[in-house]
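Input set for joint prediction.
Command: fold jointly, output tokens.
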Amino acid sequence: MYAFDKTRLDLAREFKARPYGPHSPDLQYLLHLMRRPRPDRPFHCLVIDRDDERWTLALLEPGARKAPTLTNRVFTDLAEAEWYVFKLRWRELAGEELPID
Amino acid sequence: MTVLMGYCDRWSARPGDTVRFMVSSRGAPRYEARLVRLKQPSAGPLATPFAPEPVAAPCNGSYPARWQSIPIGSFVAVPAHPAIARLEGFTVSVRVWPTTPGRGRQALLGTWCEEASTGWALMLDENGAPALRIGAGPGKVAEVATGVPLRARRWYHVRASFDPATGRLAVGQEPLESKGFDLERAVERSLSTSLRPGGGPAPLLMAAARAGRADGPSAWGGIGTSLHFNGRLDRPRLAAGVLDPAAVAALAADPPPKGLAECLVGVWDFSIGIPTETVHDRGPHRLHGAAVNLPTRAVPGHNWDGSVVDWTRDPSQYGAIHFHDDDLVDACWEPDFAFTVPADLRSGVYAAHLVAGEAEFWVPFFVCPPRGTARSPAAFLASTATYTVYLNNRGRFASLATELYQGRLLTLDRIDMLLLEHPEMGLSTYDRHSDGSGVAYSSRHRPVINFRPTGRHWNFNLDLFIVDWLEHLGGDYDVITEEQLHEEGLELLAPYRVVITGSHPEYDSAEMLDAFEAYLRRGGRLMYMGGNGFYWRIAHHPTRPGVIEVRRAEGGVRAWDAEPGESYHAFTGEYGGLWRRNGRAPQRLVGVGFISQGFDACSYYRRTEAAADPRVSWMFEGIEGEILGDFGILQGGAAGLEIDAVDPKLGTPPHALVVARSENHSNTYELVAEEVLIPHGSTDATINRDIHADITFFETPGGGAVWSTGSIAYAGSLSWNGFDNDIARLTTNVLRRFADPTPFPFPPG
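tokens >
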């Protein structure tokens, strides 16, 4: 069974360089792990402020029975948003910050 | 916060037709309505600036805001009748297949009014146990329950009686499942009361109870409803007086014996009129009713034994109706304003743009040329069938798998949030009902969040990139719709030299495919401008325009799958599912068919050797490079989202030419389910060579031709760099040649 390995910083670097695929098999495994939200916890999404131009990071409850809760993080580049969320999820899995900006 | 939403009564309007707009708003005293012509989507700084063109119309102006609620939830309504009103004692019997027992009280059958606490009803109580309740007003209610909750998705015979002479209320349940090893027993309970049902003559409802007069729009008879039941009812019966156990069993028989004729009141048979919204009573009073809000019919009843899977072969095994508390066919709002299409208004994509405070909403519609005429050699065929089945796709937000299969963060905007905060807007055929069963029907007669020029690029919004390109070329095009194609067939297409599809014309009726084929055989030209087209079979409601049924039978990439015995459409009796399983794979019509989907990144095409064939050399005039479409507003490439490939086994004509083929797709692009019979793991695009989009061309015997892009994302590359790009050049070359009446010679065999 695939398990998270916090020493695999190469995967983080790969994702930062190319947040959208194709990805290496190991990065794809990691993304599968990161992108399956728990049914009892909110997950990250992006609320469109201006079409194809600006997005606000938000948290959506599983089941989407109410509007997402907005954070104060705003992005003008989707790739930056993906990287930001990747780092949040890495911290969650590793128990420590990802040592890559 | 201001809430604003609306819809209109027709999507396809011709000169002289009147479009009525229904609007609901609160949080602001008034709203503004302006008609506009849509010439492109709102797509950010890389796209053509979003500039809806104002339309001078008498209906433009300011309107008082009012809130119009949405009466959601299906039921059967039988109008009040003396035969029901004069009942003092009664016996009621029905087969029940509950899907959410224990999720609050749910009414099965009766005259109960929840607001007034009057009448009587057979119900499921809070615990899911059958109960008989009678009431003569607030505080004057008696109820007896079996005390044994029904279990979900199992058939039971539920019966009850009231004896006015003794005041005895009785209720019972009997399990009907004959397979399996669960031990369940019949249960009977009774109690006595001095109360008698009150309230006077009232309609009899099944699967819901009255809730007094509706405080707003009503789905039926001006009443509100509550206590909606989730699950199936089969063969409801009502008799006068209290029957003994043998007579109760006889009452449930099909048909009841003649010996019961004198006491029969209602013998409802849901197996009659399955395509309709009428519920038939075979009893002496003909207490026919209405199936309101389109509960699902053509579903197996309590006696289904698997020996038939086609309800038309033996309707008696399909005597059930599946009710849902989130069924919705029509919001039933009052119109706010109307627009009659002037004779000189050009054909195009239009919308009412509504604004109230910080809120806005769009209500698009299509203006089409007079029937049987064309004002241009080219027609853009709006994919109204696909738009309809996707309306209010809640699953995109509710599914925990969305980010996983899309390979990117979920995005939504404030209009999308309306659906989260107002689930009464109803569901799409990509969703499951609240009881977990698949949504088989979708209607456009309600406010919807994903039919507009803003927000996520998909279907209508994405198709506006094609409109944008046609506008760039000078705007010489008509707009026609799939709704019209289903109704009018070849007559709709015949006046055009070339017909241009949308980016994702996924859903077709047999009538629609027949029309395409006839058009092509007589020399028509078809530009299939998308991916995953002509995939699912649909059925149109026999009397309600804009209501479509989808049975997601065997195979296919799908959000739910039809339950056993439910693969045949109720509206038409046709077998549902993929067209490839109905002998008409998309490859037969357009050369290519759905092979894969992915949503993280789009890729490019590489020109093939076949592109040099003299049959298609005109296509590449002005195009030098081998790589096509390594750019685009939709995730950076022209090939992606949902893509199609040729397959001779599925009907790609032998003379078809693949002039360009995509490559280098990402891991999220997986083979479609119907191509993976034995799971083997080698199914994503980084390893599987079958996954590619094919730009394909072939001639038809009558001098016509087909050209297919095989990719939804293709349209998003047209306007790149101000339309100065090879995708726009290629597509324009095709349009110009297809609009040229010179017949395409059929290649020698």
